[in-house]
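Quick note —
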Amino acid sequence: MNALLALGLFNRGEDGAPPAEWLLSTLTWYTITVSPRWNQLVLISDAPDNVTRYLVSHGGSIPRLPGMRLRAVQDYRTYALEHVPTGAQLVVTNRLDGKLQGVRENAHFDFRTLGDPLDSVEERQLAGIPPMGGAAQILLAGMAARMSMTDPKGRWATGNWYWDPLRRSDDGRGRDGGSDPQRRLWGAGDEWEARWTGLPYPEDVAAALTDPVVGISGARLVKSKRVYDVTLDDSVLKIHI
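Predicted structure written out below.
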């Protein structure tokens, strides 16, 4: 699920691969704290209703993350979601601890629930995703999980992909969070590539994935003139500079 979420978040515009049509990239204009837990992914935001609307289809809206469904709504505007194709769980909440607690409530929107089967559009979208190697899934999922991180020593920051928490000046390559960034995250098997305009800095994403404390265990970084190669086992994610 986290790898699919990354494909939705980091494809945008004319240069984006097919998951751009899910419109999940809009979430990168929200301030979201991404908190991976051992059995679920938690998104903490002061606008959980809006964030959930971009993840789960509602009413006559187009499919969002294909197969995502509402499981329950708790107090404190907390939404428990489940991705039916993978069985993975995701929580969207404004609770800083990210916990599911309180009495159940009714959703304010006509979200698709676990009783709604995948429709033909969702099946087509999922069928269009290339096969992913196991290590490649971890690399892609790592991008989504590290979308809103800042190194406490000020060496790198991903800034929710729309701003620079370290407030550095532009590096002359258009990394200024432009109003219409283009993004492409695509590949197949064990080889994937990422390129984008605007923020964050490519070296910051590469650093977040390979940080000795919060990076992906076993991931390695090799830099060339034009690309950061983030490798894990036999898989590689090429981040273009």
